[in-house]
Amino acid sequence: MENLVIRHAQLTDATQLCNAERETAKTPGLLVSRPGEFNTAAFERKILALKDDGLYLVVEWNDQIVGHALLEPMGLEAFKHVMSLTIVVHPDYVGQGIGHVLMTRLLQWAGDRPGLVKVELRVREVNRRARHLYLKFGFVEEGRLEKRIRLPDGSLIADITMAWFAPEQS
Ligand SMILES: CC(C)(COP(=O)(O)OP(=O)(O)OC[C@H]1O[C@@H](n2cnc3c(N)ncnc32)[C@H](O)[C@@H]1OP(=O)(O)O)[C@@H](O)C(=O)NCCC(=O)NCCS
Q1: How far is the CA of 161 from the centre of ligand 1 (A)?
Q2: Max CA distance (Å), the chain
Q3: Under 8 Å between Cβ of 36 and 2
Q4: Which candidate, 154, 147, 161, 83, places its Cα nearest to that of 116?
Q5: Are the CB atoms for 27 and 34 separated by under 8 Å?
Q6: What is the per-residue pLDDT for 2?
Q7: Cβ(57)–Cβ(108) below 8 Å
Q8: Residues contacting 91, CB < 8 A, separation 6+
Q9: For each of the chain's 170 residues, which pLDDT tens digit applies?
Q10: Residue closest to 111 by CA, chosen among 138, 142, 93
Q11: What residues contact 1, with CB distance under 8 A and at least 6 apart?
Q12: H or E element, residue 68
């Protein structure tokens, strides 16, 4: 895809981002939250929080937001060297390289951030596309949390924990 614009998320994006995640969540096995569990206020809070400490990016194509991704701190002093990654390419735009573009930008930022040692994420075992993307960007599987996610049909699936380690800073 050409003419993608990547920028920092703004408060006014919250409704669109919330709607996109709600839509994404209609497909079981991608996100953990169910469609009814999203609200705009939570998106606004996160956008504000990450302005000061973290990274919240959106990607636009033809003036339309087509994906977003974030790196957030984990709160405690002992975890200061670790950030948690979330990425969502919006429905209708998956499989066209946008995830690749967002991951490139996130990990460039992570690699440049003083003191950052590790980026963590969790991905559902059935989410082959996401797992492929993470492996491609150098994430390693660290663990498997069996029967962690209940899908709407009642079945239980595993969550995989993955991590990326920043290159040593000289
Ligand atoms: C996972 C996600 C971020 C990937 O972004 P994307 O823009 O769709 O992915 P890209 O087009 O950049 O790349 C997808 C890669 O996966 C591969 N792929 C696609 N479907 C696949 C499958 N079923 N199994 C394995 N690999 C697959 C593609 O071939 C491509 O790899 P390549 O670059 O080596 O050819 C995006 O699909 C998404 O947000 N999905 C919904 C929400 C979600 O799952 N978020 C992650 C939660 S942990």
Answers
A1: 17
A2: 50
A3: no
A4: 83
A5: no
A6: 82
A7: no
A8: 20, 23, 24, 27
A9: 789 999 999 999 999 999 999 999 999 999 999 999 999 999 999 999 999 899 999 999 999 999 999 999 999 999 999 999 999 999 999 999 999 999 999 999 999 999 999 999 999 999 999 999 999 999 999 999 999 999 999 999 999 999 999 998 66
A10: 138
A11: 61, 96, 97, 98
A12: strand 64-73
Does the CB atom of residue 129 touch ligand 1 within 6 A?
A: yes
Rg (CA), the chain: 16
Q: Of all atoms in ligand 1, which is nearest to the CA of residue 94?
A: 8
Token digits of residue 168: 């040593």
20 C-beta closer than 6 A to ligand 1: no
CA of 133 to the centre of ligand 1 (A): 6
| Residue-range domains of the chain with CATH | 4-165 (3.40.630.30)
Q: How remote is the CA of residue 88 from the centroid of ligand 1, in Å?
A: 10
Task: Identify any residues that bridge with 31 across adjacent strands, giving them in sequence order.
Answer: none
